[in-house]
Write a structure and sequence with these properties.
The protein contains 3 helices and 2 strands, in the order βαααβ. A two-stranded antiparallel ribbon has the order 1-2. The chain is elongated and about 55 Å long. About 15% of the residues are buried. The model has no long low-confidence stretch (mean pLDDT about 85).
């Protein structure tokens, strides 16, 4: 189990996802919220308060991007 402690002054949840899961897209923020049920209430103001300990989900993986084929190819 990996954890992350929010720095003094607080941080935005999407920035925490970027630091810990290497993306703020592809359901990363939702994965953090699922692993930490009380995190949504703590981040209601837009910032997670400093000193908050967040559990980082180990099962998260970035979804592969779909290959695009252009009509003229």
């Amino acid at each position: 189990m990996t954890t992350y402690t929010v720095a003094f002054g607080g941080e935005r949840l999407d920035r925490i996802a970027k630091k810990t899961l290497q993306t703020e897209l592809s359901g990363a923020v939702e994965a953090l919220l699922s692993a930490n049920p009380d995190l949504g209430d703590a981040a209601a103001s837009g910032f997670v308060p400093g000193g908050t300990i967040i559990v980082i989900p180990s099962a998260f993986s970035i979804a592969p991007k779909a290959a695009r084929t252009l009509a003229w190819e």
